Amino acid sequence: MALLSKDLIQQTVSKAPQTDIRHDWTLAEAEALFSFPFNDLLFRAQTLHRKFFAANEVQISTLLSIKTGGCPEDCAYCPQSAHYETGTNREPLMNIDSVLAAAREAKRGGASRFCMGAAWRRPNDQDLEAVCQMVEGVKEIGLETCVTLGMLREDQAEKLSESGLNYYNHNIDTSEEYYKEIITTRSYEDRLNTLENVRNAGINVCSGGIVGMGETQKDRSGMLTTLATLPEHPQSVPINMLVAVEGTPLSDEPAIDAINFARTIAVARIMMPASVLRLSAGRNEMTDEAQALCFAAGANSIFYGDVLLTTDNPERAADMALFDRLGLKPSKPKT
Question: Between β-strands 144-148 and 276-279, what pairing exists: parallel, antiparallel or unpaired?
Answer without folding.
Answer: unpaired
